[in-house]
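hey so i finaly got around to running the thing on DUF952 domain-containing protein from Spongiactinospora rosea. pasting the sequence first so u can double check i didnt mess up the copy paste, my clipboard has been acting weird all day
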Amino acid sequence: MRLIYHIASRPEWEAALRAGEYTVSTLGLSLAEVGFVHASTAGQVAGTADAFYGGADDLVLLVIDEDKVAPQVRYESVPDRPERFPHIYGPLNTDAVVRAVPYAKGPDGRFPPPPEE
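ok and heres what it spat out for the 3d tokens, dont ask me to read them lol
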């Protein structure tokens, strides 16, 4: 199983469970606005969270089985980062999400890496 991760607000994830698909690209932006759902590898999650989600509350980390994602997943370069990030080009089918775990800053004020699988 190849895992990728997406940081979501709990209310948006709960709405996706009811709808059967997740259509949020990133904090405050929809799939329709951006064209893909942002995702990260295990080594990228904490840095992404620290850079973009520092002021957000009530987050969940979606643990996604990449092999079960219905839309195409492309690993692409992003500005100012040397590594490629997974981008999901369509609504994320909720059955590809292995689990959703609460995701918050640690005592040091930084987000932790994802839990070991």
